[in-house]
Design goal:
Structural class: alpha+beta
Largest sheet: 2 strands, antiparallel
Order of helices and strands: HHHEEEEEE
Number of helices: 3
Distance between the termini: 75 Å
Shape: flat
Length: 160
């Protein structure tokens, strides 16, 4: 056992001496100083009077309180034409809601009337909010009725 300890101590001392010699011989100090000419980084810039900044219309628009800009969708129309909305076709119930043409029979935020929102978990089916998980006349999807005497559970007729 003592031979093993002596061997470990010898290896550790050899490693320490080798590391000390390598670090002292590879590290050299540079005694000469070089002068570096610094260039003026601002000499090529144009004066502030020559730069013209164009104001954005987005920054000029304010909401009623004047605190922040109005949120506006780039696709939002400025007006809604009721004649164009209602002429889109047969059974669809199109109407102008918030200056947009909306389908009142399928839109969950305008279900049956403008700004009539369906609750969480409900879908707009034919202008009425319906829970597709438990509604017999709209089981799993709009207008899918269960058989008479059946029930709707988890969007499936007669589940279980």
């Amino acid at each position: 056992m003592s031979r093993f300890i002596k061997l470990l101590v010898t290896i550790a001392l050899t490693f320490a001496i080798t590391t000390a010699i390598i670090t002292t011989t590879t590290t050299r100090t540079n005694t000469t100083t070089e002068e570096v000419a610094l260039e003026d980084p601002f000499k090529d810039l144009t004066p502030p009077e020559a730069i013209k900044i164009r104001r954005s219309r987005f920054l000029a628009e304010k909401d009623n309180e004047g605190l922040r800009p109005k949120p506006r969708s780039p696709n939002a129309p400025d007006f809604c034409e009721p004649k164009i909305c209602s002429s889109t076709g047969g059974s669809s119930r199109m109407a102008c809601c918030n200056k947009k043409c909306m389908n009142l029979s399928t839109d969950s935020k305008n279900c049956g009337a403008c700004n009539k929102k369906c609750r969480f978990g409900e879908t707009c089916c034919g202008g009425q909010c319906a829970n597709l998980s438990y509604n017999k006349t709209h089981c799993g999807e709009c207008n899918l009725s269960c058989k008479p005497g059946g029930y709707c559970a988890y969007g499936l007729c007669n589940y279980a």
